[in-house]
Amino acid sequence: MMQLIRSNAGKFLVIPIIVAFIAWMVVEIGMDITGVGSGGYRQGELGRVNDQPITAQAYQAAYDQMYQRLQQQTGGQVTPEQVRMLREQVWEELVNDVLMRQEMARRGIGVSDAEIRFAARNVPYPPIANEEIFLTNGQFDLNKYHSFLAGPTVDANLLNEIEQYFRNAIPQSKLVRELNAGLWVSDAELWRAWQDQNETATVEYVALDLSRLAPAEPQVSDAEVRAHYREHQEEFDREESARFTVAYLPKTLTRADSLWTLQRAQQLRAEIVGGADFGEVAERESSDEVSARQGGDLGEFRKGQFVPEFDAAAFSLPVGEVSEPVLSQFGYHLIKVESRTDSTARARHVLIPIQKSDADLTRLDAKADSLEELAQRPGTGLDRAARLVGATVRRGVTVSDGVAFIPGVGSGIEALEWASGEATARDAPARPISEVMETDQAMYLVQLESYHPKGRMTLREATPQIRRELILQKKREAAKVEGRKLVAAVRGGQTLAQAAAARGLQVQTAGPFTRVAQNPIFGQANAAIGAAFGTPVGRVSDVVETPAGLFIIRPTARTQADRRGWEAQKESQRQATTFQLQQEAYQRWMASVRAEAEIVDNRDQAFSGA
Questions:
Q1: Is the separation of the CB atoms in 230 and 458 below 8 Å?
Q2: Closest-CA residue to 58 (of 83, 82, 34)
Q3: Torsion sign over Cα 569, 570, 572, 577
Q4: By Cβ atoms counted within 10 A, which residue in 26, 92, 135, 256 is the most buried?
Q5: What is the rounded distance in angstroms from the CA atom of residue 495 to the CA atom of residue 349?
Q6: Is the model's pTM score more than 0.90?
Q7: In the chain, pLDDT over 90 holds for what percent of residues?
């Protein structure tokens, strides 16, 4: 492939590489996602998409890549909840990738070496496009990129990586182009969008205070509740959720914990210097689980890619030596540089995160065991047990699929899974108490207060919520009546301030604001924004209703969009708008394809060993 990318291509058709809408790309590692390797063997299957298998090996390869990216984004701190979400994302993207490949095969979409050569030389490879060596005055310099690709020191692995990227990206861009054939954004649409983004309004407004204008509590009948439930059933679909009382023992780190971790890092360094294999120690001890599987190998990286402390050590440490423990925000690193240039290095590391000493952990474990034993003891209960051992208690903590966080504890997914099991157990007590569970932040117990499976709320469950909503609707209707009287008074000759004061209300001001920017008072894309731009300056609007409340609006000033400025940027705006529409079209297409596809997901059985 080095010759393919380095060679001087002739004149080829420019293929638009429209790939930014893809969250990430599955890079093939010696096999494709079907699991058929060069020897024709099949790996264990996790599932199928239209009878095409997704293998465990492909899943793990994709997961490792995504996990490594997540570590870089979060500074190495990956929570159990992030891991859970990542596993779902990897699966979803693998399914999408199979569906795209199947569609490309159905349409006969492929890629030639000539197209790859042209794209590799003329479209900057995104992961390195912003490297300083390719920039001139802060802008990407294609001549510098060409010189780099043709140079004698370019890494063959990088060239293969670039080839693989465009071998995937170009067919996908062709598919996107076919999906968006005929898509065009008119000048009229672009001008309206420009107006929305640049025209401003300044207004006086009166917020209709329900407590003043509709103080009486309206009655809501059972028949009204039932009718509302029948007419809006889809609004009562919910995620799986549970409500807990939580007792937890935080794993608060101290200076002593940092010193203990430093001593542990020094012991491991002495072991390596004494003759132990660095890779074996990394595999056994490093908390960076992705690099640990490779003996601590981080591969080749560029200056500035990692945190400053690590970067400074990696680019100053003598090649082949093992560093003293290097402290960063992630813990202590032992670093061994294997090769280095002025701007790149290849190194291994062992990461030892700062954690509690074995003695402290033993004491915390004993406390947690006491908390569990006392909480489960008849007549004691969770509250008293927490007081006896010094645990912190939080009541009314709700955990759901969407918000799986417990303050002071971290991820509550394990607690939610436990609650699901207890809710379906025949012999479970009324308010069961869990065994000790653990996160990076704490050891904790939960007592189940209530559990709701994923699905639709019953009428009985939904009734309190419906009553509150219907009461609010009735109070709003009463306030609208008073608001219309206020509007009539202003249109009859009173000032807005006079009419508002007569009803105990105040006139306030807002703006200047545009049609589309987030508005902290009125919200977005609603009747209040429409009134601000549609009501003549100096006149008052009718009563307008928004999710944020009821308002009467009087525009006091407006600015118009600059037509000449719009003309100057029109084509770049068209490109950006077209790209956004392409993203939306792709998402709609993928949703429809997934709805029609036969997708078999066997991950639960595969990971449980069933």
A1: no
A2: 34
A3: positive
A4: 26
A5: 73
A6: no
A7: 40
